[in-house]
Amino acid sequence: MIFHLAVTPGEVTITLIILVVIFVFVKTLGNKGRKRLSPPGPWSFPIIGNLFQLGDHPYLTFMEMRKKYGDVFMLRLGMVPVLVVNGMEMVKQVLLKDTEHFAGRPDMHSFSFLAEGKSLSFSVNYGESWKLHKKIASNALRTFSKAEAKSSTCSCLLEEHVTEEVSELVKVFTESTSKNGSFDPRNAITCAVANVVCALCFGKRYDHSDKEFLRIIKTNDDLLKASSAANPVDFIPCFRYLPLRIINAPREFYRALNKFIALHVQDHITTYDKDHIRDITDALLNTCHNKYASTKTATLNDDEIISTVSDLFGAGITTADTTLNGYFIPRKTCTFINMYQVNHDETIWDNPSLFRPERFLNENGELNKSLVEKVLIFGMGIRKCLGEDVARNEIFIFITTVLQQLSLRTCPRAELDLTPTYGLTMKPKPYQLQAELRSSGSSSV
Ligand code: HEM
Asked: Where are the transmembrane segments (predicted)?
């Protein structure tokens, strides 16, 4: 039997509409159960995202955005979604409480050349091998900085190296003043800091005019500018093929640095004597030989020793889905911690831009430790800076010695500008000073 169904176009349309409505209804219901709230953030352009809205000082732009979107917000740099975290409480949540979830590092083009991708600081992989790597590097650094000094006037090897470098700084500053009338201290300070690490790692320091050493110091400047939060090459992959200075700077710097370190490590491998450990490189070789001999378990190979030493020379991603401030943050989200905002938060610091060291003292003239702990410069949690103790001791000895021995002055009519040049680290703009050896009782600027 054949049925003839007379279906009109109107009925077909109504049936289709009903089906679409049911489909949308079921889909919405399904999504409702697992609706995840994403962080707020500014509208972004296709392909470039918010990249060109960041300006020369992205940390200030983030502070402006924070006023509108709160401590946690999301933007797009190129095609990459980036989570920006501000405010001490949220930063602590990320770095201390939820630390393993935020311990990854983004796969950025600018950092990929360091130690040929095996760097501890910028390694994309966070896991057991990274933990072993960090532990070995940290032990070697601690043991060697606290090792006995050769001279009896210093309490440890680190103090001895730092004292030697700061004496050289005092000499360079006074000589440059008498020769040129004034000097820009930035290069000499970079040489002194790099020399302390060279002395610890390789048992060797360089003269401030050594060509090989100066080449690395000079390319370092370009690198710091290039490795900032706003380098398009890290966020728009096709940019990396353009012949621009900002794109090639990291490759040039890391190539020179890797070569410099590899030469020293190779030299140490050939001259290594287990009964005479000279420096950190020897200590790393020793750890590897001992560990392998006693347990036959994996330690660091020669390439990893090179990369560990590079780390001592020298943004994160989420490792799993997580939530922050009630927002859903998917795995592998690139995360920026706005440390500048924490250190300039007016709810913590009264007039934060004013240089007022006495703000850290309580009414009895003692150090206010709870306030000191609110300064965030070395990070927190498992990715915290490995060199914090070295850096703190070094800064203390550098500053006290320079101020005790020299009277520093600005040049007549020159204004000092504290606005930093933004990059991987914040550097001061070029400036000129005059230095004079203190006769007891003279005053300084
Ligand atoms: C004033 C000087 C210094 C400052 C402000 C500083 C700051 C930092 C910061 C903010 C981090 C990143 C933390 C994170 O990713 O969450 C870091 C990591 C690191 N720093 Fe420093 N640092 C300084 C000096 C040093 C020195 C002298 C060394 C070595 C001798 C060093 C070795 C490292 C290493 C190896 C890491 C990577 C740690 C990791 O990823 O687990 N730092 N530093």
From this structure: 12-30, 73-91
